[in-house]
Amino acid sequence: MKFRNTFGIFGTSVIALAALLGMPSADAANGIQFGETDFVGSAYVDCLGEFVDFEEHVDIAYHEFVTPSGNYHLVDTWKFTIMATGQATGRTWAGVLTSPGQVNAGPGEVAQFSIQGVLRSITKHAPGFFWGLTFKTTVNANGELVVERGSFDTFVRCNGKN
Fold first, then answer.
1. Is the dihedral of CA 9, 92, 155, 101 positive or negative?
2. Residue 129: enclosing H or E segment and its boundaries?
3. Could you tell me what percent of the chain has a pLDDT over 90?
4. What is the torsional sign of CA 159, 44, 101, 137?
């Protein structure tokens, strides 16, 4: 089942990551920093047969540090709280998606993240749907791409009849 994204969660992720690097954040005593942001967007979901408008609130927790050897590490977790409304039918969904991720950069680099969760129907007789996106890249010290898994295409699977 294809998903055609006009903004959606991946766009949110990219923009939120950029915002994360420049936004003020709360800092816990253990070095974990916190931030939050809001986004709106819409996407066509094939298995629902309609465009769906999304309102997303994103809570972000992350820890970044540099080791004595000079390697940079970022470990983060994003929690997307989503309200969605079908443009054609007015059906509504709500859900929470989680997204752990990490970046390790030294002479080489590994970057990976995964976003997944279920949006459950609030409207009677509408299917819920699973939303997932996973991506990983590894570049060696020579700058050569060694691993590229996943894609930036989101996977959506409906649960139940449309």
1. positive
2. strand 128-139
3. 62
4. positive
Average pLDDT, the chain: 83
Q: Please give the pLDDT value at position 6.
A: 37
Euclidean distance between CA atoms 150 and 120, whole angstroms: 25
Q: In angstroms, how far apart are the furthest CA atoms of the chain? A: 57
CA distances from 114 to 74, 126, 132 (A): 15, 26, 7
pLDDT digits (tens, 9 = 90+) for 25-62: 555 567 899 999 999 999 899 889 999 999 999 999 99
pTM (predicted TM-score): 0.73
Residue 44: which residues within 8 A CB-CB, separation 6 or more? 3, 4, 6, 50, 51, 52
Question: Are 98 and 111 spatial neighbours (Cβ–Cβ below 8 Å)?
Answer: no
Of the candidates 42, 46, 45, 26, the residue with the CA atom closest to the CA atom of residue 34? 26
Query: Which helix (H) or strand (E) is 144 found in, with range?
Result: none
